[in-house]
Amino acid sequence: MFQALVFVLGAAVPEEILSLAGLGGIQGVVRANSREFLRVPYAEAPTKERRWRPPTPKKGWSGLLDGTTYGAACAQPYPSMFDPPISNTSENCLSMAIYAPRSNSSSSDGGGVPILVYIHGGSFANGGASEARLNATQLVERSGGAIAVAVVQYRLSIFGFLGANQLVGRGGDNSTGNYGLQDCASHPTLHPNPYHGTDMAPIWHPYGTHPFPICPPARNQDQRLALQFLRAHATSFGGNPHRITIAGQSAGAACVSAHVVAPRSTGLFQAAAMWSGAFPDWGYAKMATQQKVFDAVAANLCGGQTSPLDGRPTPAGTNGAMPPADVIKCLESMNAESLLVTAYTASGNVCGDKPCLQTTIDGVELSGQPRELLMSMTAPLEIPLLMGSGRDEGDAFDAGSGLDKSATPSDLRDWLQYEY
User: For 307-330, how does the pLDDT look when each residue is reduced to its tens digit (9 = 90+)?
Assistant: First the structure.
């Protein structure tokens, strides 16, 4: 759907104001059958001491925010890989682009239109709402304003998917490595939730009765907080908070797969779509793998590392290691570029040419591969799933394969066995 979305924009007419209760106003643009709000922040900047912690829900602001242009994409190693390249990146990136019907009363039943929430791909390291192919204006326009679309940005690479024992506990539980994806506290009454309401209580989840109505943003990671934000403010742009479909391609599909089997995401969406990455083996990393990356980054940038792998400091004078708290402070002080470059090198050394910094099987957020968790469910899955692959998906990977049009099935088989 979004892989080759070519859009033709209608002429823009006077600007529109999106009013978000408890936050403020955002200036957007009105088109023939749709409105665009291209920079809608849902969390505070996850920088410095907020690195490798759950996102902080966005606080209110005075005046109007400019939503007529995209917010910065999340810091990433290769923004130039896109056509056209992503020109603006920052750690202050937790926003979404919302494409909404022109009128808040567009649905036939008056309850708001369905919302498609898109989680972009990019090997967990690249991408953003400003990618030209992800502009959803044409989709909303062609529907006659019968759907709303939100393209969510989330932390990437070392900022979103660095798992390590040294980082356990920074979110209030023992989850780690899933800052771009999901996490939440163990009980909603411990942390007031501005997006919580009894009408949003999930009624089902794959492992039996869910003891908690909804996870509080104080312990949420990016994508889940974005879903809660959309549920809370859906009616502001004509959407229905009870008709949300999450969708994603490649790494985005792997993220959707994790949400489908995660009890902590239960009730935040009613359907899921995944293409070129539904319940893949490659989308999730073991803690031991993530720990190796963390230790390599710490050793390179901070002159030492914690040892052994459980994060306990070694005795003074042993291997030059430093206490975990000092390592974290050191990494928090580094600029984004240094962290991205060092993480890229460390990931290559640990995982070769395959993604390394990705959703972590940490025993808290994920206890295993989502596909295995799906197959082991004790109750039927009660949400519809749409799964498939993008046409010519493999073209992105054949440039370095040495294969051309003269390749035989045997050549392809040999290459696939070598590569995978």
Answer: 443 344 443 333 456 778 889 999
In this structure, what token pair is assigned to residue 397? Answer: 């990977």
What is the rounded distance in angstroms from the CA atom of residue 277 to the CA atom of residue 76? 21
Q: Can you spell out the DSSP letters for 116-131?
A: EEEE--STTTS--TT-
Query: What's the rounded Cα separation, in Å, for the pair 329 and 317?
Result: 20
Strands (DSSP E) found in 85-183: 89-90, 95-101, 113-119, 148-152
Sequence length of the chain is 420
Residue that the structure tokens 């932390």 belong to = 155
Q: What distance in Å separates the CA atoms of residue 124 and residue 120, rounded to the nearest whole number?
A: 9
pLDDT tens profile 37-88: 999 999 999 998 999 999 999 999 999 999 999 999 999 988 877 778 888 9
Return d(Cα 260, Cα 269) in angstroms, integer.
Answer: 9
- Do residues 156 and 110 lie in contact, with contact meaning Cβ atoms separated by under 8 Å? no
How many other CB atoms are there within 10 angstroms of residue 31's CB atom?
A: 20
